[in-house]
Design goal:
By secondary structure, this protein is mostly beta strands. It is built from two helices and 16 strands. The chain has helices spanning 185-196, 208-215, and strands spanning 14-26, 32-37, 41-46, 49-50, 53-58, 61-67, 70-71, 73-78, 92-95, 98-100, 108-118, 122-137, 156-162, 165-167, 170-173, 175-179. Strands 1, 2, 3, 8, 11, 12, 13 and 16 form an eight-stranded antiparallel beta sheet that branches. A two-stranded antiparallel ribbon has the order 4-7. The longest helix has 12 residues, at 185-196. The protein is globular, with a radius of gyration of 21 Å.
């Protein structure tokens, strides 16, 4: 077996950036049937929680650890948001341009892309697709400041909680990540066509099982 080697040329990887944000709107059956572009997305902070050990004791010793269920949450920050976001941000729209607050917050889906770079190709090495299911946005503060000699655009922020969805052969999940540097390129193109749409189909968010099926049997 060869000895371990560190920091070889081409093996110095890093992740950066966030782009290609898409908001997915569920239909009456809960299928994320329609996707809309999310322009101005600046930050997605993924915040898993849970998976905490609880020690169990027997025979005067630590007998085992029971691990609590893991949950996925996130914080979204953006300069702006799609018009369709209103229904997920607790706003009713009785007429175009008229918004009624404190309404029921609906569930939505989300996808975004992060870049993978290395020491040879920089940020163009590849990317990861993050697909998030069962999202609900919590109310958030909005600070409107006077315009002064150092103007800054308002950054909107939302806390996101999730409800996991079924995955065959695995525990329910709220997050699927696809690495472009590992998966089959043709299958990746098929997935992106579903996520972003084309001239023949509307952008939509496939279920975890449908995502896995796209890559099944590919090298």
């Amino acid at each position: 077996m060869p000895a371990l080697v560190w920091d070889q040329v081409g093996d110095r990887f890093y992740e950066t950036g966030v782009d290609h944000g898409v908001l997915y709107i569920p239909d009456a059956t809960g299928v994320y049937a329609t996707g809309v572009s999310w322009n101005g997305l600046t930050t997605v902070t993924e915040s898993p929680s849970g998976a905490e050990p609880t020690a169990q004791y027997a025979d005067n010793i630590k007998y085992l650890n029971l691990i609590s269920a893991e949950e996925f949450g996130a914080t979204l920050e953006a300069f702006t948001y799609p018009e369709e976001w209103a229904q997920f941000d607790g706003l009713g729209v009785p007429e175009d341009g008229v918004f009624v607050g404190q309404q029921t917050r609906k569930m939505f889906g989300l996808s975004y892309r992060t870049r993978i770079g290395n020491d040879v190709m920089g940020d163009e090495y590849g990317y990861k697709l993050h697909l998030v299911y069962g999202c609900t946005a919590s109310p958030s503060e909005k600070a409107y400041n006077t315009i002064n000699d150092s103007p800054e655009a308002i950054t909107f922020s939302w806390e996101i909680t999730t409800t996991p969805v079924p995955v065959t052969g695995f525990k329910p999940t709220s997050l699927i990540v696809v690495d472009s540097g590992i998966v089959d390129a043709a299958a990746l193109t098929s997935l992106e066509t579903e996520l972003y749409g084309d001239v023949t189909g509307t952008a939509h968010l496939p279920t975890p099982d449908e995502v896995i099926a796209i890559f099944a049997g590919t090298p």
